[in-house]
């Protein structure tokens, strides 16, 4: 779990390249120790990306970008303006490298939750860091509201064993949230700003 909030320089590096096909598009991602899903694209993120609708457009924030899979996919598929944020410096460095490797131009910057996020987006898309604990998780999910344009949408993926139904219920206190699909226990949720 250290990859969520630590920037431990003592974590030994072990970079690996992964060829990945998502929704008919090909990518190469370099991963490393100390980042989420170092063995390649995780099933939850794949499910989220392959569920996204065709109407995605405008300005998009990839929150908790890790090594960059979500934002890089979004840029390649939708040709939108993409901002990508994370708190983990190793993840950010990999995201920059992976954006270049996949020939996409995106804006990548460090942010502790939304601390350095200064604008509003049409979409915020995330595989949120569930294991950070409820308090920080809900700062991320509920805080997205302030960074969405009117009728903007938060898209996320959560496993049922990590509280997907509770997350959905809580999101509906602030958003219009619904399950878009379920796949092997992963729930893709869309939460629209009221």
Would you kindly provide a brief summary of this structure?
The chain is of the alpha/beta class. It has helices at about 45-50, 70-80, 90-100, 135-145, 165-170, and strands at about 15-20, 25-30, 60-65, 80-85, 105-110, 120-125, 150-160, 175-185, 185-194.
Order of helices and strands: EEHEHEHEEHEHEE
Q: What's the name of the CATH homologous superfamily?
A: Vaccinia Virus protein VP39
Number of strands: 9
Gap from first CA to last CA: 33 Å
Which CATH class applies here?
Answer: Alpha Beta
Task: Label the CATH architecture.
Answer: 3-Layer(aba) Sandwich
Q: Which shape, going by the Cα principal axes?
A: globular
Strand content: 25-35%
- Number of helical regions: 5
* Unreliable spans: none
Helix and strand composition category: alpha/beta
Question: Rounded to an integer, what's the Rg over CA atoms?
Answer: 15 Å
The tally of domains stands at 1
Strand order in the sheet with the most strands: 5-4-3-6-7-9-8
Average pLDDT: 93
The main sheet comes to:
7 strands, mixed
What is the CATH third-level topology name? Rossmann fold
Helix content: 25-40%
């Amino acid at each position: 779990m250290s990859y969520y909030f630590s920037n431990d320089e003592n974590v030994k590096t072990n970079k690996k390249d992964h060829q990945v096909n998502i929704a008919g598009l090909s990518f190469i991602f370099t991963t490393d120790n100390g980042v989420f899903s170092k063995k390649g694209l995780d099933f939850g993120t794949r499910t989220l990306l392959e569920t996204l609708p065709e109407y995605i457009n405008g300005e998009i924030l990839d929150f908790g970008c890790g090594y960059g899979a979500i934002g890089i996919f979004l840029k390649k598929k939708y040709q939108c303006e993409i901002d990508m944020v994370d708190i983990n410096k190793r993840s950010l460095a990999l995201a920059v490298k992976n954006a270049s490797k996949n020939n996409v131009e995106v804006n990548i910057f460090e942010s502790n939750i939304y601390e350095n996020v200064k604008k509003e987006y049409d979409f915020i898309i995330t595989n949120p860091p569930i294991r950070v604990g409820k308090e920080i998780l809900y700062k991320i999910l509920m805080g997205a509201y302030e960074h969405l344009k009117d009728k903007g949408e938060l898209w996320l993926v959560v496993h049922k064993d990590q509280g997907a139904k509770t997350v959905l219920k809580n999101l509906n206190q602030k958003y219009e949230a619904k399950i878009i699909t379920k796949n092997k226990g992963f729930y893709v949720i869309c939460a629209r700003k009221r």
